[in-house]
């Protein structure tokens, strides 16, 4: 926090751009300029939204309600990020929430087949890739799609026929890295 505390907006934007995080260059000054209380509130709401979306993901995967509740509580309270209230973690909490919202929307799309859920999920994933480590977990999304859309002949040809239908999901990380 001390690096960007009381720094003017153009310098913050330039610092994030040089770090390769263009979306963060504009989101961070917008929120952090409102003061530490707003920053902490945004972080809290983002983590709360993440837990709610994780609960929704487990519901879409037909996990029983007690296990879902236990997993969601454990997910929200597990101390992975102990600096959740630092101002600099606002962006990470927002992108984290976007990733899990995208995951939930993907599973809803696979059940309902409403096009806008798919578009929304892809946009959320794309923006959430600002946290590069989420790209690794994106493989879980691809595996979930493969599990839900199991081809009838479960062989290589069946899986390859599934690929064009979800090429947007497969190519999304490549598109992110090419931009």
Written account of the structure:
The protein is 73% helix and 0% strand. It is an all-alpha fold and 179 residues long. The longest helix is centred in the N-terminal third of the chain and has 25 residues, at 36-60. 26% of the residues are buried. The model has no long low-confidence stretch (mean pLDDT 86).
Helix and strand composition category: mainly alpha
- What is Rg? 18 Å
| Strand tally | 0
Q: Outline, from the CA principal axes?
A: globular
The major sheet is characterized as: none
The ordered string of helix (H) and strand (E) elements is: HHHHHHHHH
Distance between the termini: 28 Å
Would you tell me the overall average pLDDT?
86
Count of helical segments? 9
Stretches with pLDDT under 50, minimum 5 residues: none
In short:
The protein is mainly α and 179 residues long. It is 73% helix and 0% strand. It has helices at 9-18, 22-32, 36-60, 65-77, 90-112, 115-128, 134-148, 156-162, 167-178.
Topology:
Layout: H1 9-18, H2 22-32, H3 36-60, H4 65-77, H5 90-112, H6 115-128, H7 134-148, H8 156-162, H9 167-178
Helix pairs in contact: 1-2, 3-4, 3-5, 5-6, 5-7
Defining traits:
179 residues
